[in-house]
Specification:
heterodimer; A: 286 residues; alpha/beta; D-Maltodextrin-Binding Protein, domain 2; 2 domains; 6-stranded mixed beta sheet; 5-stranded mixed beta sheet; 13 strands; 35% helix; disordered N terminus; B: 621 residues; mainly alpha; Cytochrome Bc1 Complex, Chain D, domain 2; two-stranded antiparallel ribbon; 2% strand
């Protein structure tokens, strides 16, 4: 049921209206964080570039949530897509998908999650958050739930995600990074557990009122994932075409690709830590 | 989820650039409408545009309500058109009615979205979309609710978190599914709806004070005075240009040690300080430097309702200084201040002969500041007298092209010096004198200004210099010409000069050559080190100001440095320096407090400590 819904959503945002894609077209799903229509326009030069490099037609689709990307790879309505590490682990487990490239931001292919509180809260350590309220982003987020919760596990404050309810006074899922960090800034909650970059969503003078009291283990960055059974030649082509953006003449296209600094090659082992953690939390089967 | 978006703002080169708020179009237009409605004169065509935008966007959410809104709003908008000539009190009534209408429409649309989310809880995607939309509409009210009723603001903030959490999660491929909690959702949605109806429903009225902002009617502490933050409307841009233009300071070119030039240092500080202005400029952190970025015009500066194009604004508006409002909308392109000591008289129409008069007027009348200390004015003048034009190897001292100029430019020089019957026997050069910085210190009505009435004599403007002008587009006082080429076309058409394509190209090549210069832009992206150096230059005035007992100027200096450090510290390349920068800013805060208490020993100690920290942290230089 959900599968069908998502594929409809995909079709809705197909770049080119017109005949169904030819069998040999390469189909790429982008995830739109905000404005799907805008993204469709933005990725057009990327599509043209990839067509020239791969020598086949490239069709771009835009999905509005990760589940749709994963489902498109499993349903073979797309050959490759962009997703977060936890979604990848699920896509691998459920559909045999595999990663080819990781994104690089600010010179790094990993990032961390942090536990933020207001400076004037008097809270200085994560232990002190016992019985306090915390906002995460959503229950299936690596940087906005799994890794920040792991900070508490590493400190021996909780054992399993089911203990979190007992440790915290109240857990909220704010639905977005900005909502989560603003919830702390505005005093709706005592803390937020989110990816490090969320902090910059605050205005400079607002950032000064916040402080991080905990930091997670490194999280591998978002990745480009390919479906099981995709044409290996095209997969190699895609990998090389995207890697060539790192310091090639088409570097400006990276701006349309979520403004990454570039790509690095990855394989399943890059995400072993994520898979391990996902297992501990019961997100993936033993 | 918004990881990538977050990173857009984290680009180190632009960290001190404040990204525009991302608002839903309805919220954006509504907030702008509130800003417009307080202005005199009313920017009526912009009011009409935002009202139509609200109607069009509402249409997609709730067609019936949208057309009811449009039906009620359009006659009000029409009545506010200057042609209708409403009496002042009728004007005010119409403005209020329009804002009340928009407020109620937004609140109702928000309530509908909450109801839609609730009805679609079984479909996570649909429910999430409706809830997100509701929350984006909420941003229309948030700032005022926070200011007027902080306690309720927090309670309602928790409602939104409850709502988001109650949506549950659909999981991915059946993993991580969390069922929605419809009872919890209903409870919080009802609470928000009730709040909206009470405060922004039929009974909503614009507060008596006449501020067009959604101040809630019911507040937990009705005795508490409501102080709304001063804000610019969505679409405003006060960021400075990138790449940074290169400032040419005569003293710096000569290699003068900046610590020896006290008055200039004081002026540099004043030029960067919003504390020499009054409200609202002060709270908006506006300074001379915002518009005249290190003497160079800021081409992106824009305030909806006060600017007609980027790079200009109405400097005699009701917003920045109601007492000095001239009552009509006359936005002016921000002029370049390079070479200002050679370009008197001042103002596009040359209305002030001296820089001193001009600057005092800017501070007191344009930006509502207190009467400036004469020493501050002396400082500002001393600083501005150092502003030089860009050096230009293609021009000799007499203003004639050198051999290095192109053939086309040389041909253009001849045209520039040609006398035209059609221009009353003038050549371009007889007004833009090459030997006198391409100006004549006279005012001419060349036909670029729309007069107050037929045959009025109010269109004369001071001849502007053409030096360094290649980098100051757009052109003319109203910014109506996008390029130097289009200026030349304007002259050609207006005076029927009969120049053909080749001659136009040659004239343009000439004017562009005159307007060019060496290294117009800096190649450094990271400005923090340069800024910190400038702050210690500001602080070098301390002993002089203390000796002359200028406590007020010392206080301004401390406040300016603290504010600027906090604004620029996010540019720091090495995050481990952050605490040092915070420390330096708080030293300035503390010195300011000591100054207020007259504790000079503590003030001295604070200044010394600041200098020591700066000296001992070579990474900051």
């Amino acid at each position: 049921m959900r599968l069908r819904n998502s594929v409809c959503a995909l079709a809705l945002f197909a770049l080119a209206a017109g005949p169904a894609p030819a069998a040999e077209d390469f189909r790429l799903v982008f995830i739109a964080y905000q404005n799907p229509d805008q993204l469709v326009d933005n990725v057009e030069p990327v599509v043209e570039y990839l067509e020239a490099r791969l020598g086949v037609g490239v069709k771009a689709y835009v999905a509005t949530d990760y589940a749709a990307v994963v489902e498109a790879l499993r349903g073979e309505t797309a050959d490759a897509g962009f997703m977060g590490p936890l979604q990848y682990v699920l896509a691998h487990q459920e559909a045999g998908a595999y990663p080819i490239l990781g994104e690089v931001y600010s010179g790094s292919s990993t990032y961390v999650s942090r536990i933020f509180v207001r400076k004037d809260s008097g809270i200085e350590s994560v232990e002190q958050l016992k019985d306090h309220s915390i906002a995460f982003v959503d229950p299936l987020s690596s940087s906005g739930y799994m890794y920040p919760l792991d900070v508490f596990r590493q400190q021996g404050l909780i054992d399993h995600r089911d203990d979190a309810d007992a440790f915290f006074g109240r857990i909220y899922f704010a639905g977005g990074d900005e909502q989560a960090i603003r919830a702390v800034y505005n005093g709706f909650v005592d803390a937020a557990g989110i990816g490090q970059y969320s902090f910059t969503l605050l205005r400079p003078e607002e950032r000064d009122q916040m402080v991080a009291i905990g930091e997670s283990r490194p999280i591998p960055s978002h990745c480009v994932v390919v479906r099981k059974g995709a044409d290996p030649e095209l997969v190699d082509g895609l990998r090389e075409a995207l890697l060539a953006l790192n310091d090639g003449p088409n570097r400006n296209l990276l701006e349309q690709l979520y403004n990454v600094d570039g790509y690095v090659e990855v394989d399943h082992s890059t995400y072993a830590g994520v898979a391990e953690l996902a297992k501990e939390y019961g997100f993936v089967r033993e | 989820m918004a990881l990538c978006l977050a990173i857009f703002c984290d680009h180190p080169a632009t960290a001190h650039i404040v990204p525009p708020e991302e608002l839903h179009p309805i919220t954006e237009s509504y907030r702008r409408l509130g800003f417009f409605l307080q202005l005199r004169p009313l920017p009526s065509s912009e009011v009409a545009r935002d009202v139509e935008r609200i109607a069009a966007e509402l249409e997609a959410l709730d067609a019936e309500r949208a057309s009811a809104f449009a039906r009620a709003a359009r006659p009000l908008v029409e009545s506010l058109d200057p042609a209708t000539e409403l009496e002042p009190n009728e004007q005010l009534t119409a403005r209020r009615a329009l804002f009340e209408l928009a407020t109620r429409a937004l609140a109702a649309a928000l309530e509908t979205q909450l109801a839609d989310a609730r009805a679609s809880l079984a479909d996570y995607g649909a429910a999430r979309r409706s809830l997100d939309l509701a929350r984006q509409l909420w941003e229309a009210f948030e700032v005022e609710i926070r200011a007027a009723d902080p306690q309720t603001f927090v309670e309602l903030g928790r409602c939104w978190l409850e709502l988001s959490s109650a949506l549950g999660h659909p999981g991915v491929l059946g993993v991580g599914v969390v069922a929605p909690d419809s009872a919890a959702f209903a409870e919080d949605a009802d609470e928000l709806a009730r709040y909206l109806r009470i405060n922004f429903g039929e009974a909503y009225r614009v507060a008596e004070a006449g501020t067009f902002a959604p101040v809630p009617r019911q507040r937990s502490d009705p005795e508490r005075a409501v102080e709304l933050p001063i804000r610019l409307p969505p679409g405003a841009n006060l960021n400075k240009q990138l790449p940074r233009p290169r400032q040419v300071l005569n003293m710096a070119t000569r290699g003068v040690d900046e610590r020896e030039t006290t008055l200039i240092a004081l002026g540099d500080m004043g030029f960067d300080s919003s504390f020499i202005f009054g409200e609202p400029a002060r709270s908006l952190a506006l300074s001379c430097n915002t518009c005249h970025n290190k003497s160079i015009t800021n081409p992106g500066f824009f305030i909806p309702g006060l600017s007609s194009r980027p790079g200009g604004l109405d400097v005699s508006s009701s917003f920045f200084a109601p007492h000095a409002n001239n009552g009509h909308f006359d936005p002016i392109d921000i002029p370049d201040l390079r070479g200002i000591r050679f370009t008197a008289p001042y103002g596009r129409n040359g209305r002030f002969d001296s820089l001193r008069e001009f600057i005092r007027n800017v501070i007191v009348n344009e930006f509502n500041g207190p009467e400036p200390d004469p020493t501050l004015l002396d400082g500002l003048i001393a600083y501005m007298l150092e502003f030089d034009f860009l050096p230009n190897p293609l021009l000799g001292a007499d203003g004639r092209l050198t051999d290095a100029a192109s053939a086309a430019a040389k041909a253009g020089e001849e045209i520039f010096n040609r006398e035209f019957e059609q221009m009353g026997g003038h050549s371009c050069a007889s007004c833009h004198l090459p030997s006198d910085h391409f100006l004549d210190r006279r005012r001419h009505d060349i036909g670029t200004v729309a007069g107050a009435e037929e045959n009025s004599r109010d269109g004369a403007l001071d001849t502007p210099t053409l030096l360094s002008s290649l980098y100051t587009a757009p052109y003319f006082a109203d910014g109506s010409q996008p390029t130097l080429r289009s200026v030349n076309e304007w002259f050609n058409d207006h005076y029927e000069l009969g120049l053909g394509e080749t001659e136009l190209e040659q004239l343009t090549a000439y004017v562009e050559t005159v307007g060019s210069g060496v290294d117009a832009y800096e190649d450094t992206l990271h400005t923090l080190e340069a800024e910190l150096e400038e702050f210690s230059f500001f602080l070098s005035t301390y002993e002089f100001l203390k000796q002359r007992q200028h406590s007020e100027l010392i206080a301004i200096t401390f406040k300016t440095i603290a504010l600027e450090i906090r604004a620029h510290k996010w540019d720091v390349q090495d995050p481990s320096q952050m605490p040092t920068l915070d420390h330096m800013a708080s030293l300035m805060d503390a010195a300011g407090e000591a100054l207020q208490q007259g504790d000079w020993a503590a003030v001295d100690a604070g200044v010394q400590e600041y200098r020591r920290v700066y000296a001992e942290n070579p990474q900051l230089r």
